[in-house]
């Protein structure tokens, strides 16, 4: 009897450990996160327009019908990331997602000078490097420091009605995502 | 010998089975924590961020998606009206009341899984702040119905449960400013078919 209750107790402790192990390992082994799903359809630094018809079910398209999106994957170990776009849309916003698909940084067009899309995403070490030297060609770019090494940049655009569809397409298709090696 | 084997198997069964089952129950059945509520509307500002608790994170990992960041906006969903009755597509609702300050908002009707309802002919089951008609005091009301309505009409189709999704973009609400005093429009049931 004593051995049975000991076994039951041991089982419960084990159940607790298994519970915690599953809970904390689940996010790392998920295949539904934005990173994994985007990897399946695009190479790093390819800007993918989240087309509601062509990519339905393959990438996490925002459910909001007035929002169009495009995304690219990046890897900061290959140098800082330069995100640039041109065009005029009523609203755009940008989010950085980490390897698990968690939102780590977001910014909207109101927070940038004259609403232009021009960002440099870099790690704290790369930031130190840039600060320590004069880099004249960076111009107006906004610097975003992040501890995420591999991640996703996702751009959202507000499309109030069909007449804005063209402007949104020009904006989203024109987004460039480029690694910029630090020299 | 046999007894030891039996006890070992018992320990392993309880540990693996109990551990897996308890995680499943917590993720599927227990309600998420960290919700911000205003009347029938609920939002999860920390869902899909690093501030989320481990259960919300695991739940998010299973569902996937690209949550809005605090500088972008916040999404509220309602599955019930202001009197606590479940929202149904065969009923008509009136949405009216104060809306928090934001650059713009979007409003759409979705099925239980969160996907936009199919359109009524060419009319999508969605509206946004720049297309609603307003009174002279800037207030507005939206009719949610299967039948055409004057003024602001959110056309729904089909039957069964639905949810209403309201997203505020570029709003101080999303960055956590005074979420407690938040006031969102009321959802009032006006009629039901059949």
UniProtKB/TrEMBL annotation, chain A:
Query: What residue ranges are annotated as transmembrane?
Result: 6-26
Q: Which UniProt keywords apply?
A: Membrane, Transmembrane, Transmembrane helix
Q: InterPro entries, per this entry?
A: UCP010244_IM
Q: What domain of life is recorded for the organism?
A: Bacteria
Kindly provide the name given to this protein in its UniProt entry. Answer: DUF1254 domain-containing protein
UniProtKB/TrEMBL annotation, chain B:
Q: Which Gene3D superfamilies match?
A: Domain of unknown function DUF1214, C-terminal domain
Which sequence ranges are marked TM in the entry? none
Query: Where in this chain does the record put each DUF1214 domain?
Result: 72-171
Source organism superkingdom: Bacteria
A single Pfam family it belongs to is DUF1214
**This chain belongs to which protein, by name?**
DUF1214 domain-containing protein
């Amino acid at each position: 009897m004593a051995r049975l209750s000991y076994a039951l107790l041991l089982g419960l402790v084990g159940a607790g450990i298994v519970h915690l192990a599953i809970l904390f390992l689940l996010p790392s082994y998920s295949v539904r996160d934005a990173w994994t799903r985007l990897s399946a359809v695009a190479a790093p630094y390819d800007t993918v327009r989240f087309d509601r018809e062509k990519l339905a079910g393959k990438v996490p398209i925002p459910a909001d019908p007035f929002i169009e999106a495009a995304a690219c994957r990046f890897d900061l170990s290959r140098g800082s990331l330069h995100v640039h776009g041109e065009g005029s849309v009523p609203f755009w916003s940008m989010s950085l997602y980490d390897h698990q698909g968690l939102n780590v940084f977001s910014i909207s067009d109101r927070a940038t000078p004259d609403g232009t899309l021009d960002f440099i995403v870099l790690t704290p070490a790369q930031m130190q490097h840039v600060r320590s030297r004069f880099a004249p060609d960076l111009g107006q770019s906004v610097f975003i420091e992040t501890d995420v090494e591999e991640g996703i940049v996702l751009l959202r655009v507000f499309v109030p009605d069909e007449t804005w569809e063209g402007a949104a397409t020009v904006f989203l298709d024109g987004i460039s995502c480029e690694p910029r090696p630090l020299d | 010998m046999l007894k030891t084997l039996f006890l070992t198997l018992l320990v392993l069964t309880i540990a693996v089975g109990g551990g897996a089952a308890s995680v499943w129950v917590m993720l599927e059945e227990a309600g998420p924590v960290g919700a911000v509520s205003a009347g029938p509307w609920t939002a999860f500002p920390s869902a899909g961020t690093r501030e989320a608790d481990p259960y919300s994170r695991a739940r998010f990992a299973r569902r996937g998606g690209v949550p809005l960041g605090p500088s972008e906006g916040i999404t509220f969903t309602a599955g019930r009206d202001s009197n606590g009755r479940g929202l149904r597509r065969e009923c008509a609702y009136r949405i009216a009341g104060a809306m928090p300050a934001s650059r713009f908002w979007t409003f759409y009707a979705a099925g239980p899984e969160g996907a936009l309802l199919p359109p009524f002919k060419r009319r999508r089951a969605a509206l946004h702040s720049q297309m609603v008609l307003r009174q002279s005091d800037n207030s507005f009301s939206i009719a949610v119905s299967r039948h055409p309505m004057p003024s602001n009409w959110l056309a729904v189709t089909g039957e069964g449960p639905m949810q209403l999704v309201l997203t505020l973009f570029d709003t101080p609400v999303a960055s956590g400013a005074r979420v407690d005093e938040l006031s969102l429009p009321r959802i009032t049931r006006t009629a039901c078919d059949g």
